[in-house]
Amino acid sequence: MATEVTPKKPPDWKNLTDTVQDAESLRQESINAHHDHLITEIETSDGPLGTSLRAVYEGDELEKFKESLSDHIKNHDKEIERMCNYHYQGFIDSIRELLKVSCDAAQLKDEISDVNSHLQDSCEPLLTKGEELVKCRRVQRNIASAVENLTLCLPVLEMYGKLQEQMSSKRYYPALKTLEQLEHTYLPRVETHWFSQTMKEAIPKLRERIKDASMSDLKDFLESIRNFSARIGEIAMKHAAEQNNMDPAVAQSNKKLKTKRAPKPPNPFTGEIEKEGTEKSVIADSAADDMGELSAQDLIDFSPVYRCLHIYTVLGDREKFETYYRKQRRKQARLSLQPPSNMHESIENFKRYFHDIVGFFVVEDHILSTTQGLVNRAYMDELWEMSVSKLAASLRTSAALCKESEMMLDIKKLIVLFCHTLRGYGFSVGHLLELLLEMRDQYSDILTRQWVDIFNEIFNEDNYTPIYVESVEEYTAIVTQFPFQDEELEQASLPRNEETFPKRFPFSLFVPNIYTQVKAYINACLKFSADLHLSHTEIDDMIRKSTNLLLTRTLGSCLSSLIKRRDLTLLQLIQIAINMNYLEKSCSYLEEYISSITGAQSDSVHMARLHGTSMFKDSRSDAEEHIYSKLNTKISEFIELANYDWSLPESKGHASGYITDLVAFLQSTFMSFTNLPVSDMSLFGFNYHYHF
């Protein structure tokens, strides 16, 4: 077996040297590769070289990089030299050809210059025409643009001109419509033009101008309506008088006023006014026959109200307008309800006062019926309630200052007509009718004061002697005044017995006069009770109460004062007592008369009876007491005047002259008692004997 030979290993230091040499070689290759990369990056990069240069200087191989860079430059130079050597012969050939072409190019340039000169000379007119054509085309384009823009702008300007014309003619609602069209339809078409912006900025100001102008017209309307309210009220009350069968003169003022018929109001939406004949613009006197045909709309142009309402509605301020209108009208209502300080002095003052109030509510009713929501029924009722309370207070105050019954009666007629008028417009007048019942008591008081003077005048003018009539006519005149029945006088009044005149009535003239005046008082009371919507029974009861007050208080007081007069003679007192007897009997006729004029049933159990019978009895008793007193005084005077000789031994056989005179006086006095009741005559005789 052969022995295996083991190879001999090199020493370890030799291996280490080889390893170091390999590492150094690798490092050198890495550096060279890095330098090549940097040089390539520098050559190919179009951007900044700061990063590459920083990488070169950061290492310790700057010298080696320079060497590598020099090697690259040398390589490139060699490559350029090689390329130039390769293309040198071609370059020489190209230069030679270029020199040949240079001569041809110069000749061609000269020919081109000549052709260009000829072309410029030939085209100069064409260029001129072309420039002119360009200018014309530019002008044509500008004209077309101007026409197009004018086509857009003219409607806008026309609408603006229309707006200005409408505002100058005070057609504000159409102007507002035109403004809306201008803002939303026309101006958007010309937004590119500078004037559109100016117009847009002016639109809010124009709206405010329209609002202010319409409000100014409304204020003028509210001011003028105050002047026409009285006239409107007069016409309305006259219509109501005709409809309720009342005298139209109650409402008609004696003051002559000229009334101009208002022009036909313009259409509030178009602002146009329909043409009318001149006959509709006449001036009518208050007494003209056609005054009754006029209405509130004929006298007042309401277009400012309608126009302002529509304008504020469109602009969204309707509520503000309604508030302003109602506030102003409330102020005017308070002014109308404020009576003049001298209203009680003349019925004309009352008429104007009522006319003004009626005119106010007629206008408001017209506004209520011709507008939607400007005024409503609740507002009207509130205004009416306020007015009724103030009106009632004013009438109470003014009526309390009146001293004449005729004026009170005229005031009552005015109030009744006022109630009829406003009831026709839907207003409640119950409080005013209650006021009339209060005024009726005042009217009765005024009548009572007047009748005091009438009764006293009758008493002063009477001669207190029986009435003598000379003919049938005089007799008829007396029995027509006073219900007196006497068979002897009735027989004497027959035609065949005319020769029996003169005849005598048992009473004096103040009996028929008093009876006539009491009937006149009853008639005066009835006048005030008319048209108060009272039943026959209520009227009858009111008149009977007033008549009782007249008889018991007024006439009774006057009779009491008459009987107490010291200048009355005994015969006059006797005649007064006789007169009381006949006036007492006439009370039943007065009751029948009241029933006949009131239409109430005379046998009603609820009917009040007249107290005149007891009053006349009391007055007659008072007169009899004064007769007793005067008669006793006269008898005492006769006896005191007697002068007797008390020392005569015997009687002379006949009555003394004093006794004879006393008997003659008593005989003539008792002859005046023949028209008194027998019981009264007996009392007088008993009293005479007792006193004697």
From TrEMBL:
Residues 432-687 form the Exocyst complex subunit EXOC6/Sec15 C-terminal domain. Keywords: Coiled coil, Exocytosis, Transport. Coiled coil: none annotated. The keyword Transport applies. It comes from the Eukaryota. The keyword Coiled coil applies. Residues 69-237 form the Exocyst complex component EXOC6/Sec15 N-terminal domain. One of its GO terms (cellular component) is membrane. Residues 254-273 are annotated as: Disordered. Belongs to the SEC15 family. This is Exocyst complex component. It comes from Magallana gigas.
